[in-house]
Amino acid sequence: MEFNAKQIAEYIQGSIEGDEEATISTFAKIEEGKHGAISFLANPKYTHYIYETECSIVLVDESIKIEKPTKATLIRVKNARDCVAKLLQLYESMKPRKQGIDSLAFISPKATIGKNVYIGAFAYIGDGVVVGDNCMIYPHTTIMDNTTLGNNCIIYPNASIYHNCKIGNNVICHSGSVIGADGFGFAPNAETNSYDKIPQIGIVTIEDDVEIGANTCIDRSTMGSTYVRKGVKLDNLVQIAHNTDIGENTVMSAQVGIAGSTKVGEWCMFGGQVGISGHLKIGNKVFLGAQSGVLSKLKDNQSLMGSPAIEPRNYFKSQVIFQRLPEIYKHIDSLQKEFDELKKKK
């Protein structure tokens, strides 16, 4: 399907610089652009590519100065990144939708399946499962007994949702994600010199508009529920332990680990490999840089880095000192030798 610059500019409310009849049928990175593709320029660091790209159309932030002629037709917008996201959503919505229930899928006769649902081969739908309208359940997915899925959910291949979990509307679970596995609960037994497993009889509740990355795990609670609130976005390989509560619209990058019974506020942003200890309360709008280690509760609007996590200004100062440690050590060692020589002379 092709669109011309005039149609695109009208859709995203931009202004055209160049040929309004220039057409595109695909997307490309600006540095890898080819004829018939559209790209965007939102970061001034990439401005040099605008003069080299073969893209037919480029969306450009109004704030970026273009000082030389370009081959591409430009569409000026307030925020190129937002506009390309809008176009990508439109592009995605036009793709053919998978339909029907494969004959190789197993669906319990006690399950309830909504309207316009796709279920792929070798998917397993257990007793008492409720699947909402317009859901897409890809091959080799497992949804165990008495779990409920809202409308418009997408469950990708090899995702597993254990029993009794509650999944809201518009939830996306990527391949390999595991929802509702047992929490890590064990108690030392002095008599047997071993650990006794503590049954995890709770559930996982995932609210609307949540996206869960590949191989991310969300454990069921010991009692009650582990909560992932509305609008949360989890990257790949994230671990959410039992009894936790992740606040609305919080975003976590890959390999974040949240220990049990921790409550995370709303609109938080955690970089990759952040680790948070258990039984803590993290405020709203907390920013944690990559590999931060959090050992105590945090107030609203804090920004921290490092392990243990400290204020960014102190973290960067510490890094400068750390890099100079060999030099500082030599200096101290030299002073110590001079001091020892002075003592001998006395």
Q: Could you walk me through the main structural features you see in this protein, from its secondary elements to its overall organization?
A:
One of its GO terms (molecular function) is N-acyltransferase activity. One of its GO terms (biological process) is lipid A biosynthetic process. Its EC number is 2.3.1.191. There is one protein chain. This protein is 16% helix and 28% strand. The termini are far apart. The protein folds into three domains: 3-93, 3-Layer(aba) Sandwich (Udp-n-acetylmuramoylalanyl-d-glutamate--2,6- Diaminopimelate Ligase, Chain: A, domain 1), CATH 3.40.1390; 159-310, Hexapeptide repeat proteins (UDP N-Acetylglucosamine Acyltransferase, domain 1, 3 Solenoid); 313-345. The mean pLDDT is 96. The protein contains four helices and 38 strands. It has 346 residues and is an alpha/beta fold. The strands form six sheets. It has a ten-stranded parallel sheet, with no helix packed on it.
Strand content: 25-35%
Topology, number of strands? 38
Tally of separate domains: 3
Global geometry = flat
Calculate the mean pLDDT score and round it. 96
N-C termini distance: 92 Å
Unreliable spans are none
| Tally of separate helices | 4
Query: Which secondary-structure class do the elements indicate?
Result: alpha/beta
Main-sheet strand order equals: 8-11-14-17-20-25-28-31-34-37
**Major β-sheet profile:** 10 strands, parallel
| CATH fold node name of the largest domain | UDP N-Acetylglucosamine Acyltransferase, domain 1
Task: Give the CATH superfamily of the largest domain.
Answer: Hexapeptide repeat proteins
